[in-house]
């Protein structure tokens, strides 16, 4: 009887750890996604630019003069390529 109770306690501890782990994972993914989609810079060249991911692809919207588009591209895509390289 005592052995059955210890397995029940063990199973509850494991389930609790899994739920906490999933919660932490979701929170960190949400924070990373919010950081990727919103431009945290106050640079006016980034006001019209944004990015999002869908189906494994990264999409960017770039708008403005050629120099603004170049800056937006470097800001939006450069961060992602640096993370992929490690």
Largest sheet: 2 strands, antiparallel
Question: What structural class do you assign from the helix and strand content?
Answer: mainly alpha
Percent strand: 5-15%
List low-pLDDT spans.
none
Question: Number of DSSP helices?
Answer: 2
- Give the tally of β-strands: 2
Strand order of the largest sheet: 1-2
* Overall geometric form: rod-shaped
What is the ordering of alpha helices and beta strands? HEEH
Radius of gyration: 21 Å
How many separate domains? 2
Q: Calculate the terminal CA-CA distance, rounded to whole Å.
A: 52 Å
| Mean of residue pLDDT values | 78
* Helix percent band: 55-70%
What are the defining features of this structure?
86 residues, mainly alpha, 2 domains, two-stranded antiparallel ribbon, 2 strands, 65% helix, rod-shaped
What would you say about this model in short?
The protein has 86 residues and is mostly helical. The chain has 2 domains: 1-37; 41-86, no CATH class.
How would you explain this protein's 3D organization?
By secondary structure, the protein is mainly alpha-helical. It has two domains: 1-37; 41-86, no CATH class. The chain has helices at residues 2-37, 66-85, and strands at residues 50-54, 57-61. It has a two-stranded antiparallel ribbon. Strand 1 and strand 2 (57-61) form a beta hairpin. The radius of gyration is 21 Å and the shape is rod-shaped. The N and C termini lie far apart (52 Å).
């Amino acid at each position: 009887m005592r052995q059955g109770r210890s397995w029940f306690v063990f199973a509850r501890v494991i389930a609790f750890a899994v739920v906490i782990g999933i919660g932490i994972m979701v929170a960190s993914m949400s924070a990373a996604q919010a950081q990727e989609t919103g431009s945290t810079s106050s640079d006016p060249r980034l006001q019209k630019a944004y990015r999002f991911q869908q189906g494994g692809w990264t999409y960017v919207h770039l708008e403005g003069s050629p120099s603004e588009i170049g800056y937006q591209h470097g800001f939006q895509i450069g961060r992602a390529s640096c993370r992929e390289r490690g």
